[in-house]
């Protein structure tokens, strides 16, 4: 155990050192928020994949593999295919806009009020994304090192808050590359073969597990469709993902490297589901299936190597936590604070001091949320339900329907978000109804209010 802790401490120290180095490169707001819009294909692929593959993708997919078998990969598949979709269809127009946030598109198409309303939704989404992975960080450290949960949250989450605050996107990019490499080695090339070998190989899994564990649809078509409704479309409109797109040096890099990152996410999901299946064979009677990942690590790996895999898991979790945190602070500083001050614009080359303060304050908020919420997939579902239910319809309308109006966008965001919250309370976070009803009501209100409102005068720069 002492050797494992040493490996993790070295990893954490490296993350802080890279964050400090990133601070030296973050001299302008462009540097801090979008890495100077200058990432090449290798950095772009690594940071995009690391951003998507967080707590739910890693810990959650192993759990799904433990419970449902190989079909547990659909969560990662929906996220990965969303990355492919945004890379092929939206990266080019997004890079031309030279903006920082999703909500700036809504302001160009509608008005500042629509931007403010959507920014409130985006802020909640980004905070929950950060909290989700911070919870998973705490869970992993608690199980493997025997630390109290709150101590695990403050140590692991505190490292994320520290390096995110001091260096912004440059720190995130540098740490993401290391995290991407550690994730790939630790989970795909160490834990997967080790757990499968100890379980007796793939043939042993076939012999010992029910046939349903090898069906790609065992998890249920309703769940698969819901994953795509929430995660696939959520990728298209998530601030954490758009902010990574804005870092690409060129449209070609965003298209090709982004698509490669999406394909990697799908393969990563298959690997995590297979790890969960091996855990089911080796540890069939876990008291808490949420601990399947930590349990298989403890069971299958020797000291030192176990520390490497823990570092790999923490890498996956920290990359997404930091992405959510920076997305939240960017939304706050770029979209909400100027409205509170009655400001109308932001300088691309402004002082980054305000961004650092916002990142630190919201980092403390994320740690607070993580201390009171426990289920990573439920927390992620809440975030994406609010995002997709409240913003998908008005954002697509901004791009594709000239008849769309500001009043319709605001009504759709308000009714969609409220409907999502109501059905999450009534039917639970795991239900399919929140996303279906919120999209339906948001769409109906958007169309009806648009048709009843005066026809808008769309500027040449809109969408």
From TrEMBL:
Keywords: Membrane, Symport, Transmembrane, Transmembrane helix, Transport. It is found in: Membrane. It is a multi-pass membrane protein. It comes from the Bacteria. InterPro entries: Na/Glc_symporter_sf, Na/solute_symporter, Sodium:Solute_Symporter. It holds the Pfam family SSF. Its main location: membrane. The keyword Transmembrane helix applies. The chain crosses the membrane at residues 6-23, 43-66, 72-95, 116-137, 143-165, 177-196, 216-237, 258-279, 308-337, 357-377, 383-401, 408-429, 435-453. This is Sodium:solute symport protein. GO terms for cellular component: plasma membrane. PANTHER family: SODIUM-SOLUTE SYMPORTER-RELATED, SODIUM/PROLINE SYMPORTER-RELATED. The lineage of its organism: Bacteria, Pseudomonadati, Pseudomonadota, Gammaproteobacteria, Pseudomonadales. GO terms for molecular function: symporter activity. It comes from Pseudomonas knackmussii (strain DSM 6978 / CCUG 54928 / LMG 23759 / B13). Belongs to the sodium:solute symporter (SSF) (TC 2.A.21) family.
């Amino acid at each position: 155990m002492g050797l494992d802790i040493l490996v993790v401490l070295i990893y954490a120290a490296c993350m802080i050192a890279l964050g400090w180095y990133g601070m030296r490169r973050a001299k302008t707001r462009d540097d801090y928020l979008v890495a100077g819009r200058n990432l090449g294909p290798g950095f772009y692929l690594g940071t995009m994949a690391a951003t998507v593959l967080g707590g739910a993708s890693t810990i959650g997919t192993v759990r799904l593999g433990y419970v449902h078998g190989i079909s547990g990969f659909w969560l990662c598949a929906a996220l990965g295919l969303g990355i492919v979709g945004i890379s092929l269809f939206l990266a080019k127009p997004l890079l031309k806009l030279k903006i920082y946030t999703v909500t700036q598109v809504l302001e160009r198409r509608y008005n500042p009020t629509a931007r403010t309303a959507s920014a409130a939704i985006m802020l909640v989404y980004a905070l929950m994304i950060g909290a989700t992975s911070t919870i998973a960080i705490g869970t992993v450290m608690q199980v493997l090192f025997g630390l109290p949960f709150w101590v695990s949250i403050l140590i692991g989450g505190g490292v994320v808050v520290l390096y995110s605050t001091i260096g912004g996107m440059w720190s995130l990019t540098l740490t993401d590359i290391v995290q991407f490499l550690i994730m790939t080695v630790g989970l795909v090339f160490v834990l997967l073969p080790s757990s499968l070998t100890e379980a007796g190989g793939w043939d042993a899994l076939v012999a010992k597990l029910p046939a349903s564990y090898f069906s790609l649809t065992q998890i249920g078509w309703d769940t698969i469709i819901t994953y795509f409704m929430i995660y696939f479309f959520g990728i298209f409109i998530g601030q954490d993902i758009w902010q990574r797109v804005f870092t690409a040096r060129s449209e070609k890099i965003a298209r090709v490297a982004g698509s490669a990152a999406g394909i990697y996410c799908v393969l990563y999901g298959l690997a995590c589901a297979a790890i969960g299946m091996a855990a089911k064979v080796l540890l069939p009677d876990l008291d808490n299936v949420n601990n399947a990942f930590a349990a298989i690590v403890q069971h299958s790996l020797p000291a030192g190597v176990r520390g490497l895999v823990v570092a790999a898991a923490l890498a996956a979790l920290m990359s997404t936590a930091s992405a959510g945190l920076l997305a939240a602070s960017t939304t706050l500083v770029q979209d909400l604070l100027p409205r509170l001050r009655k400001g109308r614009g932001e300088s691309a080359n402004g002082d980054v001091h305000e961004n650092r303060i916002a990142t630190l304050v919201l980092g403390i908020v994320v740690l607070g949320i993580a201390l009171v919420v426990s289920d990573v997939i439920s927390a992620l579902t809440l975030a994406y339900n609010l995002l997709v239910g409240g913003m998908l319809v008005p954002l697509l309308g901004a791009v594709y329907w000239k008849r769309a109006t500001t009043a319709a966008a605001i009504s759709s965001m308000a009714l969609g978000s409220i409907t999502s919250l109501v059905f999450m309370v009534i039917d639970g976070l795991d239900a399919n109804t929140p996303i279906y009803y919120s999209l339906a009501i948001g769409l109906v209100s958007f169309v009806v209010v648009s048709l009843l409102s005066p026809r808008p005068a769309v500027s040449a720069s809109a969408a």
